[in-house]
Amino acid sequence: MAAVTDAPAIPDYRPVLDHGFVRLDAVMADDLSVVNAARVSFARHKDAMDASDEGLIRFLLRERHGTPFEHNSFRFHIRCPIFVAREWFRHRIGSFNEFSMRYAKATEDFYVPAPEDVRTQVGKPGAYTFESVEPELAESTRATLESVYRTAYEAYEELVEAGVAREIARCVLPVGAYTEFFWTVNARALMNFVSLRAAETAQREIRRYAEAVESFLAEKMPVTYEAFVANDRTAP
Ligand SMILES: Cc1cc2nc3c(=O)[nH]c(=O)nc-3n(C[C@H](O)[C@H](O)[C@H](O)COP(=O)(O)OP(=O)(O)OC[C@H]3O[C@@H](n4cnc5c(N)ncnc54)[C@H](O)[C@@H]3O)c2cc1C
Q: How far apart are CA 34 and CA 38, in angstroms?
């Protein structure tokens, strides 16, 4: 299956992993919306940011007055492996719509980590570190994944050809298969997502996606973003 959108040809697009991307499909977000949401308490309204507004944003973030950061919206189009989407969908504050493998044919794209991303897990639960493996093991891991993906996809196509419904045939596909979804989220929930998923403790693959969505937050709401970073990346 081709990507839902011909992603490389469109703006506001960040490639992620081997076949994925984050694309900002639409946005209604700026720092002024935070200021005006807060200042409505005093029946005040601003048309442009000044230094006192930047101070206000830093104060709101530091003191965890979170609701003024909710009057905005980022609509993302994301393409990622199913295992990344599963982690992503745990974030309940936001709206999702996903590509359906009941109605459309599954993608032929599967995630194969780059050699440097094939890693070993060292330590105890809660305190793992992930270290590179020898080049030979990295290559054989990649070859194993490619072979399993090929076999799985052939089985999927055979079942569909034989008349089995896509909703049953998809059972043979591994979680490395790519999926796509739309995610609409406000800056408060986005900061919460970034604080958890761009952190060292998050799995490397979703971290790459979190870094991509973070770059859009930084671009569209720079004062909010700077305050978030200064606040140890804690969401309000
Ligand atoms: C490193 C890491 C490891 C993880 N490992 C596991 C795991 O092993 N197993 C597992 O099941 N999950 C795991 N998770 C998922 C995690 O438990 C959360 O479900 C996920 O990170 C979403 O976070 P959230 O609830 O803050 O976000 P959202 O669901 O977007 O919620 C945002 C905020 O809204 C508020 N909120 C939302 N819903 C409620 C509610 N029902 N009641 C009260 N407040 C609410 C909370 O303040 C919350 O922080 C892991 C997450 C990370 C980052």
A: 6
